[in-house]
UniProtKB/TrEMBL annotation, chain B:
The keyword Membrane does not apply. GO terms for molecular function: ligase activity. It comes from Maritimibacter dapengensis. This is Carbamoyltransferase HypF. The keyword Translocase does not apply. Belongs to the carbamoyltransferase HypF family. InterPro entries: Acylphosphatase-like_dom, Acylphosphatase_CS, Carbamoyltrans_HypF-like, Carbamoyltransferase_HypF, HypF_C, HypF_C_2, Sua5-like_dom, Znf_HypF.
Length: 331, 728
C-alpha cells in the first residue's frame, strides 16, 4: 500500500478492502440512519469513541479489528445501551500488506454481525513509514438506551455483589506472549469478545442491576476504583475468588506484574443487589461470554472510594488505581 | 534570695512537681511549682535556694529528662510554705511521655503481700502505661482509658498526696477499683503454655502470641498457624533467663533495663530451638515490662516467645472482640484484661553496636519523644513530613523540636493505612500542630506522598536518600550552617532525581540540597518489587553484568532465567537501580543463603551478615571504581574464580563494599569538600558493615544513627529538616 494518491485506483482499493465488506450496498460519505428507536419516549442516544493500537496487530484470539469493534460495542453495552452502529477510521502505515488489511476488515465485519451492529461509515488515511505501526483504528459507536435503564457507577450501594464474567488477564498476558521477545510458552488466547448479548441477558434477568464496567486498560483494579470513587463506597474483593488461569498467574509471577491490572478486552465487572446475584450469574452463564461468571466481592459502606483485596493470608491489601508507570516501592 | 527556675525537657507527667515539692520542703524553702506550655516553672525563695538550683536538674525522677535548667532573679511575692499550683495558661500539660516498664518499687509491691500483691495493673508516676492509654489532652485520668475505672478511697488518697509515689499517677489502680485480668480457655494461661499451647496475651500496645520458647514443637506450631516460616520471633525472659540463653554485654544490659524495655538483639547463648530465628546469630530479647508479664513469666518459669498478635502483614490486634475474631484460629486461649488499648504500639527493636545503641524499630517506650532541632532551625515553620511507604512514620516540627512518630508499617495494608491516617490527626492534636508545609518523598506511588500532595498545603518534595542523610545529620545535631556532609547512604530502593531507582549512594550535601557523588553501578530490577522479594533475580542480573552468565545458569538451574533475561532486554518491568540492598540480596543468593524468596524483609542481608560474622579479618573483594560508578562486577569475577568458604566470601564482600564507599566519602573530607561523613539507609542496620566503615573512615568525623532508625522509620525526620531548611 502506497502513501498519498487520491486517484481512482486508490478509491477502488478502498472500496474493495473496506466499503464492500462493511456495507455491500454502498456507503455514502455520511451514514443515514432511521431513528425509530429514539422515537420511544424516554429513550436516549448513547455514543462513544475509542482508538485502538496494539502490537502485534494479530494475536491468538483476535486482531486489532476485533478489538476495535468489541471495545466500542462494550463501552456502549456496559452503559446499558443496545449497540446499533459503528464508524471506523483507519490510519495505515505505508507498506502495510493489503492481505493483512483484508483479514482485519473481515474480522470486523464478523464481530459486527455477531454483535448485531452495522459499520456504516468510515475513513482511511495512509501515512509514511514509521508514522504509524501498521494500522491504527478509531471506532465510534451509537446505541440506544431503553427508557428506565439507568446503569451508572454512582448507583452502587453497600452490600451489592461484584461479579466478573470470566477469567481475568488473558488478553494482557496473551499480548505479552505474542510480542515474541520473551520465551513465554503460552497457550493463552485473548479474551476479546463483544458483551452486548451478555449485558442484554443480565438486564433482562436483573431489573435492578446497578452498574457495569469493562475491565480494559488498567484491568479490574481500575474498573473497581472508578466505581468505588463514583459511588462513594468501599469495594472488597477476595483473592481466592479471583478467576485466574495458572498461565496468567505464572506470567505475572515471572514478570512481576499484578493480574488485577492486566488489560482485558472481553471482561466486565457488574454490580447487582445481593438478591439479584444468583439471577445475574445464571443470565451471564447462559451466553458464551459469561460462562466463567463468578462473584469476586462486594461493596461496603466505608472507607469511601477504597478498594481492598482480602489476601490468602487474611490481611487486606489496598488496590489502587494505576498511576502512570508502576515503580518499585519496597525500600 | 528569690529565684524563678524554668526546667525544660520531658518533665510533665513524670512526677516532677512532687519531686520539686519534696526537695523544696526538705530544704525548708517557700514558693510554688507549676506546669505550663514550656515545661515546669518554679518560684522559690529561702536560705537553701542555691542548693535547690544545684540539685533540681540532677536528682529528677526516673522518667524525667531535663534538657535545661534556667535560673533568674525574681522579685514577686511568695506565701508561706511550698505548694503545687494549678497549671498555668493554655497549652499546659501537653507533653505526653512514653510508656514505661514496671519500676522496682511497684514490682516489690506486686511480689509482696500488701494490697497490690499479685495485681497486674500496678503502676506509679515512675512507671506504667502512658501513650497507649491516652485518648486526649491534657493528660489526666478522664482522658485515658482509665476513665472507665473510678478510684477507690485508698487510691485517691495516694493520688492526692504529693509525698506519695502515686501523686497524680493518672493510671493508678488497685484490685478494689482497677482493671481485671482473666483467662479464656482451658485451665490457666501458664498451664496452656507449659503444655505446648499458644496463648494470645493482651499487653500494653497490643496482643502478643505467646508460647514456650524452649519447646521446639510449640515454636513450630506457632509458625505454622501464623504462616510465618522464618521471620525471627521475639522473646521475653527474666534477667536470669536472658543471662543464660544469651550473651549480654554491659551496654546491652543497660538497654534491656531501660524504662522503654525494648527488644534487644543479643548473641545466642545456651541453645534454644533453631526455629526461633533460623540462620540468625542473634535473638531478640526483652524483659517483662508490665506486671502482667512479670506474673505470667513467673508462673511459667521459662522464656516466652512474644510475637505480635496479628494476621500476616496486618498490624497488631488491640481490641478484645477483634482478638477473639482474628486470632481465634491461632490460639489455645486468651489472657484478657479490660483496660482498653487506645493506641497500638509495637515493641521497639534495638541493637547495640560497637558505636553504641541503634534503634531498628521505634515504637513502644520511645514515642512520643521529641528531639531538639539542630542550631539554625529555631525559625523553622511547622512542617508535617509524611515518611515513606514501607516503615511508615510521620514527623512534625514545632518550636525547635521534632516529634518523630512511631513505626506504623506498610501503607498498602488496609488497617495500617487506617492507622496512618489516624496518626496524622493524633500527633497533630498531641503536638497542637498546624502544618504550614508538608514534606513528601519524590515517589508518587507512595501512599504517604499521595496523602501529602492532597493536603492543599505547600509541598516540599525530598529525594529519598537526601532525607536519609538529613535524618542522621539532624539526629546528631549537625547545625543548619554546619557545612556539607558526605553521606554514605546504603539502602533498599528510593526514587532518584533522574527517574531511576537509587539505593547505594555517596551524596554530598547539606540540609537544603545535595549532589550525587558516587553510586553503585545500576542493574535492572527484573520484576520490579518482585526483585526485592526474590534474591535470585538480583544475582542473575549482577552475574550477567559481570560476564558470568554461565555461572548464573549453573547456580540458578530451575529458575526462569531465560524469560527474565528477555524481559530485561525488552524493558518489561525492569527499572534500573543502584540499590545496595539488592546487591546484598545478590550476594546472599550467590552463597546459597537465601535464593528463591525472602520470607521476611531483610532476610537475605541478615543471613549474609550472620555468615560474614563467622570469619575473621579478610581481604576485600575488589570493586571497580570508574568516576562516579562503584562497580561490583570485578568482585563477582574474583568470587567466581575462587572457591572460598561462604563465611570468607561474605566477609570479603562486606569489606570490599566498605572499602569502595569509605574511600569515596573520605576523599570528600580530605579534599575539604565535606566536613564529616554520615551513614544512613536501611542497610546500615548491619552492624558488621557499620563497624567496617568506621574502621575504614579512620579519624574522619562520622555521624551515626542511634535513636532514629537508619531505615525508612527515620525518613520523615530527614524530610522535615530538608523542607524546613529550604523555607528558612
Ligand atoms: Fe530508604
Ligand atoms: Mg472507551
Ligand atoms: Zn512504679
Ligand atoms: Zn484502688
Amino acid at each position: 500500500l502506497a502513501h498519498g494518491g487520491g486517484g481512482k485506483a486508490m478509491r477502488d482499493l478502498i472500496e474493495s478492502v473496506f466499503t464492500d465488506v462493511f456495507e455491500p450496498d454502498g456507503m455514502e460519505d455520511q451514514a443515514r440512519l432511521t431513528a425509530e428507536a429514539l422515537a420511544v419516549p424516554g429513550a436516549r442516544l448513547a455514543m462513544t469513541t475509542d482508538s485502538f493500537v496494539v502490537t502485534p496487530v494479530e494475536f491468538p484470539g483476535g486482531d486489532i479489528g476485533k478489538l476495535a469493534v468489541c471495545g466500542t460495542v462494550n463501552d456502549l453495552a456496559v452503559g446499558g445501551a443496545t449497540p446499533l452502529y459503528l464508524s471506523a477510521a483507519f490510519i495505515i502505515e505505508e507498506g502495510t500488506e493489503i492481505a493483512l488489511l483484508r483479514r482485519i476488515v473481515a474480522t470486523m465485519r464478523d464481530e459486527a454481525d455477531k454483535a448485531g451492529v452495522r459499520i456504516v461509515t468510515g475513513d482511511t488515511k495512509v501515512v509514511g513509514r514509521g508514522s504509524a505501526d501498521q494500522v491504527f483504528i478509531t471506532t465510534t459507536g451509537v446505541g440506544v438506551i431503553a427508557p428506565g435503564v439507568e446503569l451508572k457507577a454512582g448507583n452502587v450501594r453497600p452490600g451489592d455483589v461484584a461479579i466478573v464474567n470470566g477469567v481475568l488477564g488473558d488478553h494482557g498476558a496473551c499480548i505479552l506472549a505474542a510480542r515474541g521477545d520473551m520465551a513465554l510458552s503460552s497457550d493463552l488466547v485473548s479474551d476479546c469478545a463483544g458483551l452486548g448479548h451478555l449485558m442484554a441477558a443480565v438486564q433482562a434477568a436483573c431489573p435492578n442491576v446497578r452498574a457495569a464496567r469493562d475491565c480494559t486498560r488498567g484491568g479490574l483494579a481500575s474498573a473497581l476504583n472508578e466505581i468505588a470513587e463514583a459511588a462513594g463506597v468501599a469495594v472488597e474483593i477476595e483473592e481466592d475468588a479471583l478467576p485466574l488461569r495458572a498461565e496468567v498467574k505464572g506470567t505475572c509471577e515471572i514478570l512481576g506484574l499484578d493480574p488485577l491490572y492486566l488489560a482485558n478486552e472481553g471482561r466486565l465487572v457488574l454490580f447487582v443487589p445481593e438478591d439479584e446475584a444468583e439471577a445475574a450469574l445464571a443470565a451471564m452463564r447462559s451466553v458464551p461470554e459469561g460462562e466463567g461468571a463468578t462473584v469476586i466481592g462486594r461493596a461496603k459502606p466505608a472507607p469511601a472510594g477504597q478498594v481492598t483485596m482480602r489476601t490468602l493470608f487474611g490481611g487486606a491489601r489496598i488496590v489502587d488505581m494505576l498511576v502512570g508507570e508502576q515503580l518499585p516501592r519496597i525500600c | 534570695m528569690k529565684r524563678r527556675v524554668r526546667i525544660r525537657g520531658q518533665v510533665q507527667g513524670v512526677g516532677f512537681r512532687p519531686f520539686v515539692w519534696t526537695l523544696a520542703r526538705e530544704l525548708g524553702l517557700r514558693g510554688r511549682v507549676l506546669n505550663d506550655a514550656e515545661g515546669v516553672l518554679v518560684f522559690v525563695g529561702g536560705e537553701g535556694v542555691e542548693d535547690f538550683v544545684a540539685r533540681v536538674g540532677g536528682e529528677a525522677p526516673p522518667l524525667a529528662r531535663v534538657d535545661a535548667v534556667e535560673v533568674s532573679d525574681w522579685d514577686g511575692d511568695l506565701q508561706e510554705g511550698f505548694e503545687i499550683a494549678a497549671s498555668g495558661g493554655p497549652g499546659a500539660e501537653t507533653r505526653v511521655v512514653p510508656d514505661a516498664a514496671t519500676c522496682p518499687a511497684c514490682l516489690d509491691e506486686i511480689r509482696g503481700d500488701g494490697r497490690r500483691a499479685g495485681y497486674a495493673f500496678t503502676n506509679c508516676t515512675h512507671c506504667g502505661p502512658r501513650f497507649t492509654i491516652i485518648r486526649g489532652l491534657p493528660y489526666d485520668r478522664a482522658r485515658t482509658s482509665m476513665a472507665d475505672f473510678g478510684m477507690c478511697n485508698a487510691c485517691r488518697a495516694e493520688y492526692e498526696d504529693p509525698g506519695d509515689r502515686r501523686f497524680h499517677a493518672q493510671p493508678i489502680a488497685c484490685p478494689d477499683c482497677g482493671p481485671t485480668v482473666w483467662f479464656e480457655g482451658e485451665g490457666d494461661a501458664a498451664g496452656v503454655i507449659l503444655s505446648g499451647g499458644i496463648v494470645a496475651v493482651k499487653g500494653l500496645g497490643g496482643f502478643h502470641l505467646v508460647c514456650d520458647a524452649t519447646n521446639a514443637g510449640a515454636v513450630e506450631l506457632l509458625r505454622e498457624r501464623k504462616r510465618r516460616p522464618a521471620k525471627p520471633l521475639a522473646l521475653m525472659g527474666t534477667e536470669e533467663m536472658v543471662a543464660r540463653f544469651a550473651q549480654v554485654s554491659g551496654a546491652e544490659w543497660s538497654l534491656l533495663r531501660e524504662a522503654a524495655a525494648p527488644i534487644v538483639l543479643l548473641t545466642k547463648g545456651e541453645a534454644l530451638p533453631e526455629g526461633l530465628a533460623p540462620g540468625q546469630s542473634r535473638l531478640g530479647w526483652m524483659l517483662p515490662y508490665t506486671p502482667l508479664h512479670h506474673l505470667l513469666i513467673d508462673a511459667v518459669g521459662r522464656p516466652l516467645v512474644m510475637t505480635s498478635g496479628n494476621l500476616s502483614g496486618e498490624p497488631q490486634v488491640i481490641g478484645n472482640a477483634e482478638a477473639r475474631e482474628t486470632l481465634g484460629g491461632f490460639v489455645d486461649g486468651f489472657l484478657m484484661h479490660d483496660r482498653e488499648i487506645v493506641r497500638r504500639l509495637d515493641d521497639s527493636v534495638e541493637r547495640v553496636t560497637p558505636q553504641g545503641p541503634m534503634v531498628l524499630r521505634r515504637a513502644r517506650g520511645r514515642v512520643p519523644g521529641t528531639l531538639p532541632l539542630p542550631d539554625g532551625f529555631a525559625d523553622a515553620p511547622q512542617v508535617l513530613a509524611m515518611g515513606g511507604q514501607m516503615k511508615a512514620a510521620i514527623c512534625l516540627t514545632k518550636n525547635g523540636q521534632a516529634l518523630l512518630g512511631h513505626h506504623l508499617g506498610e501503607l498498602d495494608e488496609a488497617l495500617t493505612w487506617e492507622a496512618y491516617q489516624g496518626a496524622l490527626e493524633d500527633y497533630r492534636d498531641l503536638f497542637d500542630h498546624t502544618p504550614e508545609i508538608v514534606a513528601v518523598d519524590l515517589h508518587e506511588g507512595y501512599r504517604a506522598t499521595q496523602a501529602g500532595e492532597a493536603m492543599s498545603l505547600p509541598v516540599e518534595r525530598v529525594q529519598h536518600h537526601h532525607a536519609h542523610l538529613a535524618s542522621v545529620m539532624g539526629e546528631n545535631g549537625w547545625p543548619r550552617a554546619g557545612g556539607p556532609v558526605a553521606g554514605i547512604v546504603l539502602d533498599g530502593l528510593g526514587l532518584g532525581r533522574d527517574g531511576t531507582i537509587w539505593g547505594g549512594e555517596v551524596l554530598l550535601g547539606d540540609y537544603r540540597d545535595f549532589e550525587r557523588v558516587a553510586h553503585l553501578a545500576p542493574a535492572p530490577l527484573p520484576g520490579g518489587d518482585h526483585a526485592s522479594r526474590e534474591p535470585w533475580r538480583n544475582l542473575l542480573v549482577r552475574l550477567d553484568q559481570a560476564g558470568l552468565g554461565a555461572r548464573a545458569e549453573a547456580l540458578l538451574a530451575g529458575y526462569p532465567v531465560d524469560v527474565v533475561r528477555q524481559a530485561v532486554a525488552a524493558g518489561v518491568n525492569a527499572p534500573l537501580s543502584s540499590s545496595a540492598g539488592r546487591l546484598f540480596d545478590a550476594m546472599s543468593a550467590a552463597l546459597g543463603l537465601c535464593v528463591e524468596r525472602q520470607s521476611y524483609e531483610g532476610e537475605a542481608a541478615m543471613r549474609l551478615e550472620a555468615m560474614a560474622e563467622r570469619a575473621g579479618m579478610v581481604a576485600p573483594y575488589p570493586f571497580g571504581q570508574d568516576g562516579a560508578v562503584i562497580d561490583p562486577a570485578p568482585m563477582f569475577a574474583v568470587w567466581a574464580e575462587g572457591d572460598e568458604a561462604p563465611e570468607v566470601a561474605a566477609a570479603r564482600f562486606h569489606e570490599g563494599l566498605v572499602a569502595a564507599f569509605a574511600a569515596s566519602a573520605r576523599a570528600l573530607v580530605e579534599t575539604g569538600r565535606a566536613e564529616a561523613v554520615a551513614l544512613s539507609g536501611g542497610v546500615m542496620q548491619n552492624a558488621l558493615l557499620q563497624a567496617a566503615l568506621m574502621r575504614h573512615l579512620g579519624d574522619v568525623p562520622v555521624l551515626l544513627h542511634h535513636g532514629v532508625p537508619a531505615n525508612d522509620g527515620g525518613l520523615a525526620l530527614g524530610q522535615a529538616l530538608v523542607a524546613a531548611a529550604r523555607q528558612i
